[in-house]
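INTERNAL TRANSFER SHEET
From: sequence group
To: structure group
Subject: aldehyde dehydrogenase (NAD(+))

Please process the attached sequence and return the structure record in the designated field. Keep the field labels unchanged so the import script can parse them.
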Amino acid sequence: PHGLQDVLRELGVEADNAAYCTGRAWGGAPNADRRVINAPADGQRIASVAFATAADYETVAQAAAEAFKTWRLVPAPKRGDIVRQIGNKLREYKEPLGKLVSAEMGKILQEGLGEVQEMIDICDFAVGLSRQLHGFTMHSERPAHRMYDQYQPLGVVGIISAFNFPVAVWSWNAMLAAVCGDVSIWKPSEKTPLTAVAVQHIIKSVLADNDIPEGVFNLIIGDATIGAALAADRRVPLVSATGSTRMGRKVGEVVGARLGRALLELGGNNAIIVTKNADLGIAIRAIVFGAVGTAGQRCTSTRRVIIEDSIFEDVKQRLLAIYPKLPIGHPLQEGTLVGPLIDGAAVAAFTGALAKVQAEGGKLLTGGEVLSGPEYAGGHYVRPALMEVENHYATVQEETFAPILYLIKYIGEVQNAIDLQNDVRQGLSSSIFTLNMREAEAFLAATGSDCGIANVNIGTSGAEIGGAFGGEKETGGGRESGSDAWKVYMRRQTNTINYSTELPLAQGIKFDV
Ligand code: NAD
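Return from structure group:
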């Protein structure tokens, strides 16, 4: 159905793919544990994939460590040229790859294609960056001395990714790591390994065309046990992990215990503040896209809307007019805006959260049903829920990775809304809708939003790659993608050079021997 078999053939995702790839060749035990990946849209088998063993991990880790020895010597702009070619190859395969992302993850085709576009964009960004890995120069306090800092390649970067952005998040990390002179080991989500296999095929052809040695871009398929091996591995100086706060706490502890670097991109509990000075037309569109887009399965999905008392009813009625009409269906079907959840466990988390919020006093305004019937057969479809709640409810304080939108009222000053928005443990994305300059600036001030992302008149979800992406508090503190996020992928060094005939000491210290 939907031409998926052709897509799998074109992308080289066949049933006999092995459990790992070190860049040029696939490998793994012939009797590997194989798992079937079913489409969240209809439960149909897409393909099976082999899972790696601990021995496979060792092979991959060694290949990566070996490859780093030579890759770090390739001039950065030349490394950028390889990334440029990867970007061009992704352009060629955008359609089938976008379709596979949509089929395997369940996001609508437009978003699947958007995710591939994000990979292409980060390639372009990384190519430019490959000529701009700048440090500063400083003036020494000593005569005839020069001081500067420089950035050197760091080593093997472990990338653990989540199911909801099965390929884009990897590319944010891997493309920056590559131009920085690092090699990478990618452990995709066990729920979405096929898109990773497809991408690795594309990478592999570029590596072969350029005679790049084994081990520069590695893929290993597996579940949390392989992720845990990466976290514990002293040969991996940086582990970039995207997923739940539960996972991040474990990975952070293990990497921290060996004093490695962990870049954590964890859960959000994102809010949009709507003041009486908002342009409600754009606010409502941003709220709906943020809350139901990707069926509420984005780390930046809008979970809470904090609305000024005098416009609360108006906003609620406008949302109530839209929610029952949302086109829910197969993600590859044209016109669908809301696809399925990833699996049955996600549906159970959705219904469980709705029950708990109601027990806490929350009011279900519309939606919340698990959908059945022939058009939904075999899939994990729900109708997005709209609820009226209070911010302090235990369930509202949690991230439920499903389309539940909580409406919360605020009274008085905009600072009251900001305090509510900050009063959760997560700190990823936030926005305010207002045309009032004082309110907007209050939101961006030191006493404003405490999130890694704070937007004015733009929703919480759908970040551009040019900015640094990530969040505070239980979101983990990591930043990746644009701005100067590249620095975490490099080893920073301060250099002082003396070209005088004396040896003056810093701080004027006298030490005559
Ligand atoms: P998850 O935590 O279940 O899994 C994410 C990845 O971590 C998977 O590859 C998994 O195998 C691995 N993993 C799990 N336990 C591990 C352990 N102990 N050691 C090492 N690896 C381990 O998350 P998910 O369900 O795939 O994704 C949804 C979550 O991801 C949500 O909380 C969402 O907010 C978050 N997310 C955050 C961002 C961000 O950039 N902040 C982006 C996307 C998703």
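Handover comment: The longest helix spans residues 109-129. The chain has a mean pLDDT of 97.
Transfer complete.
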